[in-house]
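Q: A reviewer asked whether we had any structural model of the full assembly, not just the individual parts. We don't, so I'm hoping you can provide one. Inputs are below.
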Amino acid sequence: MSRPASHSHAVHKDYQGAKLGMWIFLFTELLLFGGLFILYSTYRAIYPHDFHAGGQHLNAVIGIINTVVLLTSSLTVAVALSAIQKGSRRLTLQCLGATIVLGILFLANKYVEWSEEIRRGIYPNGPELEKLPNGGKIFYGLYYAMTGLHGLHVLAGVAVLAVMLAFVWKNRVTTTDYVKLENAGLYWHLVDVIWIFLLPMLYLAA
Amino acid sequence: MTNPAVGAVPAAWGYLEQGKRKGIFGWLLSTDHKRIGVLYLATMMTFFSVAVLIGVLMRIEQLTLDPPLFPAQTYNAFFTLHGVIMIFLFVLPGLSAVFGNFFLPIMIGAEDVAFPRLNLASWYFFISGALLAVVALFTGNGPPDTGWTFYAPFSIRTGTNVTLGVFAAFILGFSSILTGLNFITTVHRMRAPGMHWHRMPLFVWSLYATAWIQVLATPILGITLLLVIAERLFGIGVFDPAKGGDPILYQHLFWIYSHPAVYIMIVPAMGAISEIIPTFAHRTIFGYRAIAYSSMAIAALGSLVWGHHMFTSGMADQANVIFSLLTFLVAVPSSIKVFNWTATLYKGSIELKPAMLYALTFIFLFAIGGLTGVIQGALNVNVHLHDTYWIVGHFHYVMFGGTGVGFLAALLYWFPKMFGKMYNQKMAIVAWFPIFVGFNMFYFTMLVLGYMGMPRRYFTHLPQYHEAHVISSIGAFIMAFGLLLFFGNLLVALWKGKKAGADPWGGVTLEWRTSSPPPMENFETLPEIHERPYVFNPEIAR
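A: Here is a predicted structure for the entire assembly that you could use as a starting point for your response.
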């Protein structure tokens, strides 16, 4: 059998393969957070009261605002994908821009929230945290670890979406070749899904 | 064919001389899976020799009773480095990064892996992690002294440079995940026409099973190591008993990854053995499906036995019993492989070429390693054997006798294909004697020492263990000499070796149907597959 035109290494586009690779990568991300979820459940079983108190202390309003922000951003990234499929480059750019802004807004809220806790002396080895029982120290340790790691993922997602914005701008992601954007969107949804778990575990646990 | 210059000549020196760039950058920036495989080989061999050297230094330390040659802290750094380098930079990427990269695409009739650029990125993650590990040795307050397991709470309290060492392991984990992801996608999407799942060579099956473990288990190590770093930098307390954290949870998380990881190390070696045995028995493999599925079974069962590293750490009795049972069960798929290899040899016309000799050695040593594993998987025996030289002996039988010798066998088998040159076969067999004799003196003595009660990781020993320690050390020196012969022989072959033909062994899988070394695109014409693998022409078998 003679080989098709793609004998050289240059052109090889396999969208299903690209998406398969992305999904496997998303599994690894889930398992990364899975380790933290195991720790959370174990310690919650050991220190139920301290975790309850910790949940009461955290600012659920900021948590819920951030949930709305992140869910909306998932919507805008989904619209961006539909828009590029339908050939509306302008709408794609607008929606990607909106997603990036919402991502940054999420991080800004997180900054306000963390600063407030730190100002109160609740941070690892902080004066107020030292007064809490062991379960409290673990709760806030996990709070910082989980929201911190999630925050890093939001940051990475914003960076990836910014690259996608540039790609759409330069017509490297187009209405016929949009798998990169689709994968970036999948990643952004994952960041969103993880947050959906973090919100009840940390803020609504009370 | 887009480049007529490449296409016109069926390239005498194949991928070694073709490519977009010339010189060193032709290698460092190449996305060709074969070149990346060779890059891995070169880096891994460098680190392997360093770790062997450290191992020899440790054996020199045990030659003397009093006074010790190296201070205790130096010895602690030695076993940590030896473990970290051997595990993370040699046996873990091992066959999968070198031979997997080189041969997986060829064996399924593809041009390359699914994501060639990601593949190159994996190597860069690998080399960055390796370099960070080296930096960790010479900066901060001395090299890490925790052992390769980084057990909390010691790893969060010791003043040595653990943070950087742990971060290096994290980066290496990234490399492993990306390689696994790449291989899974490649197997799913890149098979040549007619290459059905049950026509894939068994090495490919083993890589596929391994890739799933890499993808599913490594993230757990990632988060565990990140938490150790967070613990050391910020003191978040999750593994610190002083703050209510539970160090046993560290052990759970660590072994949830690190037990499956030993199957990442051994399964590709089993795959290579499954290639070598039929080629030199000139007979189709016995129990193809059993061997293929047992790789998957090992991947699945192996993920559920991590607790057997922690029988003495303090777990519920029920958990201990279940983990012990599962440990016995995981021996089943491994023995299925051993029985099928043996059955393949039966009535085959066996040719004892060097690769075959090393493959048979693999079976012998792996059987000892596997069976000692079953012994220590029994709860009551484990209490006696835990943290003794028995354990050290056991895992060297599996990791070196298994993966290490499997690596040597694979190297002998595929070297002519990879570099187009033939080594001195007699010399490879001569090198086998010191390796085999030294190996058994070295590690079997450790099994005995452990049974007598010698604890591992001590810089010195009591007088009653002295004789055995001396025997073990002499074995180590003999083995190191054998390794020197082995690799010296291959290095000489790189310069002076005679040209090897396309199929020097009479192998029948796809890699033998292209020139040695293979051209940049692997095949002149895309192969089409009409039958299962390992069908030998009776005339070749003679």
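A: Points you may want to mention in the reply: Chain B has 19 helices and two strands. Chain B touches chain A through 49 residues (CB under 8 Å).
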